Amino acid sequence: MIKRRSLIRLAGPLAAAVALPRYAFAQGAYKSEYKMSTVVPPAFAWGKGGEIFANLVRERTGGRINIKQYPGASLVQGDQTRELTAARQGVIDVLCGAPINWSGTARELAVFTLPFLMPDHKAWDAVMNNSALMNEYFDMVRKAGAEPLAVGETGYRQISNSKRPITRPEDMKGLKVRVVGSPMYGDIMSAMGANPTFMSWADAQPALASGAVDAQENPLEVFLAAKIHTLGQKYVTKWNYSNDILLFAVPNQIWTSWTPADQKIVREAAQDAARQQVQLVRKLFDEDAQRVAALGVEVHVPTPGEMKTWQTETRRPYARWKAQFQPTFVSKIEEVVASTRKA
Prior knowledge:
This protein folds into two domains: 32-155 and 245-286, Bacterial extracellular solute-binding protein, family 7 (D-Maltodextrin-Binding Protein, domain 2, 3-Layer(aba) Sandwich), CATH 3.40.190; 158-242 and 287-333, Bacterial extracellular solute-binding protein, family 7 (D-Maltodextrin-Binding Protein, domain 2). The longest helix has 34 residues, at 260-293. It has helices spanning 4-28, 45-60, 83-88, 121-128, 131-143, 183-191, 201-210, 220-225, 252-255, 260-293, 304-313, 315-324, 327-342, and strands at residues 34-37, 67-70, 94-97, 146-156, 158-161, 176-179, 195-198, 215-218, 235-237, 243-251, 298-300. The termini are far apart. It is α/β, with parallel strands linked by helices. The strands form two sheets. A six-stranded mixed β-sheet has the order 7-6-8-5-9-11, with helices on both faces.
């Protein structure tokens, strides 16, 4: 019979023998590839942000974390509205996307897209640089099932159409407008008499080309890169009605599988990529109207008075969706934006 003292002496080596395989397993549990979904490829600032992020992570981890980008939302058959659900289910390992696309799964994450909430980059920057606000938002992301890493910018959404110049809300009446799968965007268009049509971008392009859809709303970067002027879109209004964030995030089940050291590397890589991505968006924003006009497209930039009219016209859908998101949180954003108007 082994004496108690002998058992005690054996306990240390046995514990180490048991612990070592578990540690080795944790390291070996890393996937050979982590799938990242982006709606657009690296030809766009959005997709470029994802590419920069993946490259930085690969370099800084020595290939230990290998993120592969899947543009066109191909991991969810082109339906970007399913990305968050797919991430929860383990189909997507890394998210680099616009929360408006996930509003059907986690409505509150689309809070920044309320119409004319952040009317210009001065307001947008003030909100994004407010640590208390962003910490509160990041808690919402965690509750939705992912660890938030950094925030980039998808760009202000502008409207184009094939029928006529849009200079006032009445010009929207009767236009069939393609919108992403967000009921809020649908409400905004309906409030101005347009007929919103929900479809993926993959489906939107042939619909625009055939004339089945009259109009679409996207950042002008998308208009240029996707050559939307070749799809019959002759008129653009640069009204800056909505600007979603570009959220870099990792589903909880993946995040917790990485060591703290690797988590730190990935977070810092996302923050560096987001800064570069925002710089790309801003450069494009400064020159997009001129570049679109050079294609023979008529571009209208609303006056301050016209902007007030647009804001008034969208007041009802704004109030309705503010109540459905996080009204207290939205009020805090409004306060930050208001402070930029006084400065």
